[in-house]
Known about the structure:
This protein is an alpha/beta fold.
Amino acid sequence: MQTETVLSWIDDAELAAISSASFWNDAEKEKEKPYHVTNDNAEKLWTFLRDETTYFDQYMTVVRVAEELGAPVKGRGVDVAAGVCWTTALLARIPQVDQIYALEISRHRLTQIAPNVCSALGAPAGKVVRVLGSFYDIRLPDGSVDFCMMSQAFHHADDPQKLLAELRRVLKPGAPALIMGEDPLYPMTVVMKRIKNVAKMVLPRRLYIGPPVYKFFPSFSELFPIDLESGDHYYRIRDYHAMFSGAGFTLHAKRNGDYTVFVAIRNK
């Protein structure tokens, strides 16, 4: 079992200042989600991860890609925006992992749900440290981390460059950041979105869902606006490469059917 206490790297005022914090700290809304795991329903999480989504497959793929790149998961790591800690628990099961910090802004996920998940998934005793905090402020020394995980996390950053700078600071040279649960937009997806937007402008309202952007040549951000409630941002595949390269990482993308995972190696 993981450590009993939850560390805090953030105070209440700092937490409240995070734009999406209220969404992720709504314990009642959490009960509607497949990630709401109690002692009695842990199997539904496995069903969701393995059968209803590609998330477990993505996890296995991104860990394998890191290994193939010569940057295996080992030593001390940080699961950034760890959620209910299912990736944390699986990473802790890797024999070469000594310790992993589960960093998350959702207090009830860390205190109420994560213990059930870690127990159900067999996280070894003493390896997991749960931390309430912001991924812009990872309170670990420079160059002290052997790997980072970001599962359904990176696209929630309002300031991705600040996040990447913080990851680069704590990672050792040559260490990997594993990124999964993203939905990078490839050129054909953007083209189809533009075509559908034009169609919405000329078709009767009853034939489509959601309003169009009333421009024949809308910008990318107008076609794919930020979800202000959850903090979701949308990026083209080229945007990921540009952001990580500019922040001092070499980004490797692996497209596998319907999903893409990334391994970003911190440049030396």
